[in-house]
Specification:
Blueprint lengths: L2 E5 L18 E10 L10 E8 L1 H9 L2 E2 L9 E6 L2 E6 L11 H12 L10 E5 L5 H8 L3 E6 L4 H12 L8 E4 L6 H4 L9 E5 L8 H11 L5 E7 L3 H10 L3 E9 L4 E8 L26
Parallel strand pairs: 7-8, 7-10, 8-9, 10-11
Antiparallel strand pairs: 1-3, 2-3, 4-5, 5-6, 11-13, 12-13
Helix pairs in contact: 2-3, 3-4
The protein binds S-adenosylmethionine.
S-adenosylmethionine (SAM) binds next to helix 2.
Length: 296
């Protein structure tokens, strides 16, 4: 995520922004230190700059994916452009889970723009706290076999959105299923038969009383080769505490970070399973060739 540049004083200029391969521009944010240690370096001021990804440009790009009805209709909806499709999401204002949250957009954008490295074709994906289902829809359009989950009262709207936006457009038809965090996990999602390549979650940590149950759910669903993609909006100290607790079970890596939105996208795996060369942490040799990574 972050790149470090060591520049001589004359070269410290925002005009000299390096271009990075992932097409994200970066900018210096602060000078860590200027160290003159001994005579060897006495004529040379080494300024250590940390470059942080400039998020404005990419955040603007993410937000441009959203569109709204041109005229007022009896039904509230929002539109999005992802994975080459126009996606219309029916919303309501009476529930947290009935509107699209910005973390979901960030995760969708990541999935679309990193579809080579994180190839979802035939991958088994579960989304928890799916809300309106945007992330599940985009993952399905990108070829995954998706189970979108949420509380029972959200399932009607979730199912409607998922069906409306994926019918006859996807390799695998996604399904919507109840998953109340921490409740009947082994009964409804037995570890012996439910293998997920990815667990996806957007904005599931906020001021609610089910953080223990949420962690339990991640723990139950995550097997040794499962990758968690978790987009998180930071609002209060509680969120930081949850990240600390999360890290007692999982290794965490920041793969996208937007300070202007206070949103971070994490990749996580069970402790000791993360390798950075492949999305699922396995080396090429370890990846099963027998199709056991494909949909159930
Ligand atoms: C802030 S919304 C985010 C919705 C969606 N992921 C998005 O980013 O647009 C949080 C979601 O978590 C779900 N949720 C909250 N508590 C839950 C629980 N105990 N079990 C399952 N889902 C829960 C809500 O119903 C809601 O859909």
């Amino acid at each position: 995520m972050y790149r470090v540049a060591y520049l001589e004083p004359g070269h410290i200029s925002t005009d000299s922004k390096p271009k990075c391969s992932d097409q994200l521009s970066i900018r210096p944010i602060f000078i860590i230190s200027s160290i003159i240690k001994d005579s060897v370096f006495s004529n040379l001021l080494l300024s250590h700059l940390i470059w942080e990804k400039e998020d404005e440009q990419i955040v603007a790009d993410i937000m441009r994916r959203r569109f709204f009805p041109a005229v007022l209709t009896h039904k509230a909806w929002e539109g999005f452009h992802f994975a080459g499709h126009e996606i219309k999401i029916t919303e309501a204002t009476d529930s947290y889970g009935a509107v699209v949250w910005p973390s979901a957009l960030v995760l969708c954008y990541f999935l679309e723009t990193n579809s080579k490295q994180y190839n979802l074709v035939d991958k088994n994906v579960i989304e928890i706290g799916a809300g309106t289902g945007l992330v599940s829809i985009v993952a399905s359009l990108l070829g995954a076999c998706v189970t979108a989950t949420d509380l029972p009262e959200l399932l009607g709207n979730l199912q409607h959105n998922v069906l409306q936006n994926t019918k006859l457009k996807c390799k695998h038809q996604p399904c919507a299923k109840e998953l109340s965090w921490g409740v009947d996990l082994e009964k409804n999602f037995p570890r012996s038969s439910c293998h997920f390549d990815y667990i996806m979650a957007a904005d599931v940590v906020y001021h609610h009383p089910f953080l223990d149950e949420l962690l339990l759910t991640f723990d139950h669903l995550c097997q040794n080769d499962t990758v968690i993609l978790w987009a998180m909006k930071f609002r209060l100290e509680k969120e930081n505490q949850f990240v600390d607790r999360f890290q007692t079970l999982f290794d965490l890596e920041i793969i996208f970070d937007f300070p202007s939105l206070n949103i971070t996208l994490y990749k996580a795996m069970r402790k000791g399973r993360m390798q950075s060369d492949t999305p699922n942490g396995l080396s090429e040799e370890e990846i099963p060739k027998d199709g056991s990574f494909s949909c159930l």
